[in-house]
């Protein structure tokens, strides 16, 4: 009897803290009227009219337009509509609790794992993933960590039963970690004496992979096979590099192997290489905005104004959230973009960092990243400016036209303890 009671109690606890059930497919048209629509491509429409059906936006324009409203009409006067925010280079869904090893699956053993697919390890039921949605972060690039070649990322939406349902773009890119010239440990900085050896290892690995792919391919070598998309341009190569020397050598490395589709991730010193990046049409996914400068002689506000420096140089820029507590901090992505406004960017430029620019870099801009007819109805309604934590209060959110729940374990606890204070 005691065992039965214990089991029932455990099940009740699991049910009460389980993730919200994913929303069903959109079955009726929805019209949002009267809101200020932030398109994501630099345009803003006051008093907008947005209609979507079957998961796609069918009309967007002025609410003054004489056109029949379809389906359910949402009165959003005084509110704001945004495209769903996109988080590149995140380990969301790969780790649930850092201290619980069984829930930590963001890295494989070894240095060369281009064949590792992060998507199949993605936990769609993650409570951390669920907590992104109330701030408008609705899509992300799930990226592995570790070694020189960490593996392959995929892009998912954040309301799904499983990784198959979540997938938006499968195996979009391979991730290469470029060696650092300096090592930083517990505040101490030392020269990486193995830098030349490590870069030579990377060059040798890619040379061997290219030779294998151009030959008989026997016996089968899965890691080399998984680099075929990088060589033929169907897959992007995200090169994680922060230092000026590393960025320059990474770009030259890509040229040596005629790799046309590369992205720099991190880019702490990318402002020193703007001409090189611009001339080679290389976008940058920038380090977290709320970071300390990497060098003693760097400007104190360098991480805050970096997006401005690169944008002014004509480089396509997006923001990422890696670093300490990277998964939890992903929910702050809109506020990192908001910080760039205080350091030179316009609000429309800042919005692009986490919408259309991110979509372009990830190769999903045909369907996501902006509010345009024919694109996915992945958007949300906010009470105010979504880049300001004081006014980012979301009342409705949709992924592919599906009205998703904004309830999380955190909102449940908030209501619970609010009532305690009221009593």
UniProtKB/TrEMBL annotation:
<dbReference type="InterPro" id="IPR006680">
    <property type="entry name" value="Amidohydro-rel"/>
</dbReference>
<feature type="domain" description="Amidohydrolase-related">
    <location>
        <begin position="311"/>
        <end position="385"/>
    </location>
</feature>
<keyword id="KW-0732">Signal</keyword>
<dbReference type="InterPro" id="IPR051781">
    <property type="entry name" value="Metallo-dep_Hydrolase"/>
</dbReference>
<feature type="signal peptide">
    <location>
        <begin position="1"/>
        <end position="18"/>
    </location>
</feature>
<dbReference type="InterPro" id="IPR011059">
    <property type="entry name" value="Metal-dep_hydrolase_composite"/>
</dbReference>
<dbReference type="GO" id="GO:0016810">
    <property type="term" value="F:hydrolase activity, acting on carbon-nitrogen (but not peptide) bonds"/>
</dbReference>
<protein>
    <submittedName>
        <fullName>Amidohydrolase family protein</fullName>
    </submittedName>
</protein>
<dbReference type="InterPro" id="IPR032466">
    <property type="entry name" value="Metal_Hydrolase"/>
</dbReference>
<dbReference type="Pfam" id="PF01979">
    <property type="entry name" value="Amidohydro_1"/>
</dbReference>
């Amino acid at each position: 009897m005691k065992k039965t009671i214990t089991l029932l109690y455990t099940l009740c606890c699991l049910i009460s803290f389980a993730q919200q059930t994913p929303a069903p497919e959109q079955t009726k048209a929805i019209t949002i009227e009267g809101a200020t629509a932030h398109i994501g491509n630099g345009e803003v429409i006051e008093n907008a009219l947005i209609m979507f059906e079957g998961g796609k936006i069918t009309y967007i324009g002025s609410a003054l337009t004489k056109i029949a409203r379809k389906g359910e009409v949402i009165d959003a006067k005084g509110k704001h509509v945004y495209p769903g925010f996109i988080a590149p280079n995140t380990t969301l869904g790969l780790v649930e609790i850092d201290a619980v090893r069984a829930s930590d699956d963001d890295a494989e053993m070894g240095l060369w794992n281009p064949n590792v697919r992060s998507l199949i390890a993605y936990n769609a039921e993650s409570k951390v993933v669920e907590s992104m949605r109330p701030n408008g972060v609705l899509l992300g690039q799930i990226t592995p960590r570790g070694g020189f070649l960490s593996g392959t990322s995929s892009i998912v939406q954040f309301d799904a039963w499983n990784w198959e349902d979540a997938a938006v773009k499968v195996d979009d890119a391979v991730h290469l970690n470029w060696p650092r010239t300096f090592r930083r440990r517990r505040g101490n900085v030392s020269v990486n004496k193995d830098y030349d050896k490590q870069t030579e290892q990377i060059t040798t690995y890619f040379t061997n992979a290219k030779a294998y792919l151009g030959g008989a391919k026997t016996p089968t070598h899965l890691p080399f096979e998984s680099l075929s998309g990088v060589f033929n341009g169907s897959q992007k190569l995200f090169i994680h590099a922060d230092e000026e020397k590393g960025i320059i050598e990474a770009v030259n490395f890509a040229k040596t192997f005629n790799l046309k589709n590369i992205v720099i991730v991190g880019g702490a010193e990318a402002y020193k290489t703007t001409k090189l990046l611009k001339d080679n049409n290389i976008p940058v996914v920038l380090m977290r905005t709320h970071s300390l400068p990497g060098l003693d002689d760097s400007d104190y506000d360098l991480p805050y104004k970096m997006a401005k420096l690169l944008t002014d140089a004509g480089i396509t820029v997006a923001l990422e959230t890696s670093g300490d507590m990277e998964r939890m901090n992903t929910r702050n992505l809109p506020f990192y973009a908001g910080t760039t406004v205080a350091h030179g960017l316009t609000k429309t430029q800042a919005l692009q960092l986490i919408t259309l620019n991110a979509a372009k870099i990830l190769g999903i801009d045909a369907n996501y990243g902006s509010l345009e007819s024919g694109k996915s109805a992945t958007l949300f309604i906010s009470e105010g400016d979504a880049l300001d934590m004081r006014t980012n209060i979301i009342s409705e959110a949709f992924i592919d036209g599906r009205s998703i729940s904004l309830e999380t374990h955190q909102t449940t606890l908030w209501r619970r303890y609010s009532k305690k204070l009221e009593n």
